[in-house]
Write a structure and sequence with these properties.
This protein has a domain of 193 residues: Sandwich (Jelly Rolls), CATH 2.60.120. The chain is 47% helix and 18% strand. It starts with 12 loop residues before the first helix and ends in an 8-residue tail after the last helix. This is AraC-like DNA-binding protein. Pfam families: AraC_N (PF06719), HTH_18 (PF12833).
């Protein structure tokens, strides 16, 4: 693919934006992701927080935990299922996870000629907090600890201002010596653009000390760490400084599931990963992830993934399933 190139050393960000319309920005992002993703799967880059994803074919639904990040598709389409809610995103829409959420992800559009290509940037809560303090009234007004929590996974319309910052970050991969100095500035700019977006308040909440979103974030961290243990709701509520009923309500608003449903999805995701990656039987795996009854494990596994463990793993291996985010 040949597109007109702009030397980022010769033009300012605003000039580059004026010279490169949105559709050409998308074309350049396709070209740059293809340059660094010769094979299907997940590609780490010289910028620690940036990961690139490629799929040459549609995939089956794969349960994974989306960590705080922004996912920007350059080509293809994907859907993320959170509880009973379906979010679809493509080059016109980006997806943001403001907290860790178990999601069933599936690439919908991809061919070897036009592969699914995605840019993923991990989001740093400390950077969000810094920008809320330094970003002026237009950013600070989006944040309030009294604001009700919102869903921790959302899709928003992409725009040329955001893609301009993403492209300038991607261009640094060709000049590695510039990455230590310039990459942090550009990642901060991308977060700033997200905070300016239509759902900036949702992202801001997770960085506010004392907000419901941050309190739920603490509970999520506990569930991730101790997913294999029998946890009591009353203990989780005390950790969040909430009543049990408030914890249930706010947790479900943010994750679209209860704390116990969240823990169950974490257990089953880890079980699926172990079965896929290691030569273990289902009974051994069920005990490792916290189930006391292998039969209960088999029932819940079948209910979530549509097949019993052995058949599901055989299907995944035959389809070269992609495990991971974005």
């Amino acid at each position: 693919m040949q597109i007109s190139r702009i030397n980022p050393n010769n033009v300012s960000g605003s000039q580059a934006l004026a010279a490169l319309p949105f559709d050409l920005q998308v074309q350049e992002l396709v070209q740059r992701i293809e340059q660094f993703t010769k094979y299907e799967g997940f590609t780490d880059t010289a910028i620690d927080a940036v990961q690139l994803i490629r799929a040459d074919h549609p995939t089956t639904g794969t349960l994974t935990v989306y960590e705080p990040s922004v996912c920007i598709i350059a080509q293809g389409q994907k859907q993320a299922v959170l509880g009973n809610e379906i979010l679809r995103y493509d080059p016109a829409n980006y997806l943001v996870a403001s907290v860790d959420v178990p999601v069933m992800g599936q690439v919908l559009e991809a061919t070897p000629e036009k592969p699914y290509l995605c840019f993923r940037l991990a989001l740093d809560t400390q950077q969000i907090s810094y920008l809320l303090l330094a970003g002026g009234d237009e950013i600070r007004k989006t944040a309030s600890i009294k604001a009700p929590p919102r869903r921790g996974l959302f899709v928003s319309k992409a725009n040329a201002t955001l893609l301009d910052a993403v492209l300038r970050l991607m261009r640094l991969l060709e000049t590695p010596a510039d990455i230590p100095v310039l990459a942090p500035l550009l990642m901060r700019e991308i977060i700033y653009r997200l905070l300016q977006g239509e759902q900036g308040e949702t992202l801001a909440q997770i960085a506010l000390a004392g907000s419901h979103a941050q309190q739920i974030g603490k509970v999520i961290n506990t569930l991730k760490r101790d997913y294999h243990k029998n946890l009591r709701i009353d203990d989780l509520a005390r950790e969040a400084c909430m009543s049990s009923s408030s914890l249930h309500a706010h947790f479900k608003t943010i994750t679209n599931m209860t704390p116990l449903q969240y823990q169950k999805q974490l257990r089953l995701q880890e079980a699926r990963r172990l079965l896929f990656a290691e030569q273990l039987d289902a009974a051994t795996v069920s005990h490792r992830v916290g189930y006391e009854s292998p039969s209960q494990f088999n029932r819940e596994y079948h209910r979530l993934f549509g097949l019993p463990p052995v058949r599901d793993i055989a299907r995944l291996r035959s389809s070269n399933a992609l495990f991971g985010q974005a």
